[in-house]
Amino acid sequence: MYNSNRHLILSSFWIRIIGLVTMTFDHIGVFLASNADRNIAQAGDIFRIIGRIAFPLFIFLLAEGMRYSHNKEKYLLRMGGIYVLLTVAQVIGIYGMGIYQLNQAPNPFADLILVALVLYFLSGKQWWKKLIALIPAGILITSFILRVLELNGEITITWWPFPFRPAYSLLGLGAGVLFYYSSSIVTFFSHKTNQYLGISDDLYRESPSGIAAANIVRVLFLASIVLGLWGLSYINERSIDPMNMSFQAWCLLACIPLLLYNGQKGYSSLWFRIFSYAYFPVHLIIIFLIFGL
C-alpha cells in the first residue's frame, strides 16, 4: 500500500543538526563577506544564504519544545542562562575590550528567549497570565519600530539597551506563535472528520497525517510572514526593512526540512543537549580566533 507520508523522515534531532550546521555557515559567511577579495566576499554571501535556513528551524524547535515540555520553567531557565552568558560576553566586549560596535549588534538569543516567554505565558490557562505575554511581545515589536526609526532618521538610539535588540523581532515573534498553534489549528479544522472516523483529536494530531498537515500549515505561515515583511520593505523607499528582507527571504529554504518533520524527538541525551546549548558561543569564539589569526 502506498504511504503518502513516507517523506516524513526528519526528527527534531536532525532538524537541530541542520540548524547548527547552517548557522555555522552563516557565521563563517559574515567573516568571508567582509574580506577585501571579491571572490572570497562572494563566497561569504553564499554561506550567508545557506545560513538563512537556521533561524526558522530554531524557532520551530523552540515552539515544539514549549508545546511538549513537561517543565516549561526549566526549559526557560536553560535558555535564559545562555542568553545571560552571551549578554555578559557582549558587555565585556564593549566595556572591557573596547569593541563598541557590539553595542548595536543584534542578539539572536534575545529573539529565542523573548519568543519563549510569549509562548510560556500564552500557554497559561488564566487570562491574566496570557496578558503578561504582551510584555515580551511588546519588547520585540518596540525593537522593530525603533530600528525602523534609526534607519529612517539615520540615527542611533542609545537609550534602548542592547540586550533587547533581537535580530529578527517580528519575524521571530510571528513564526514562533504560529508554529506553536499550527497543530491546534489543523485539529480544529479536522474535528468533524475525526468524529466521523471515530478517532480522537489528540490521536489525529500525533498521527503521520496530522503531522504532515501541520507541517504544511507551518510552511504557509512562514511564507506569509516573510512575504508580508518583504512587502513592508517597499513602503517609503524600502526604509521599513530593518532585517533586509530581500536577503532574509532566503530563509524560505527552511520550508524543505520543515515539510520533512516526522514529529519524533529522535536521538536525545544529556551530552547532546549540553552540546547544543554550548555550541553557539563556542563556535563563535573558534571562528573569531581562526579569522583573527
Shape: globular
Give the SSE string.
HHHHHHHHHHHHH
- Helix/strand-derived category reads mainly alpha
Work out the helix count.
Answer: 13
Largest β sheet strand count, sense and barrel closure: none
Helix content class: over 70%
Rg, alpha carbons: 20 Å
What is the mean pLDDT? 86
Segments where pLDDT lies below 50 for 5+ residues? none
Strand content: under 5%
DSSP strand count: 0
End-to-end span in angstroms? 58 Å
Give short descriptive properties of this protein:
293 residues; mainly alpha; 13 helices; 71% helix
If you had to describe this structure to a student in words, what would you say it looks like?
The chain starts with 11 loop residues before the first helix and ends with a helix. The mean pLDDT is 86. α1 packs antiparallel against α2. It is globular and about 65 Å long. The protein is built from 13 helices and no strands. With 293 residues, it is an all-alpha fold. Helix content is 71%, strand content 0%.
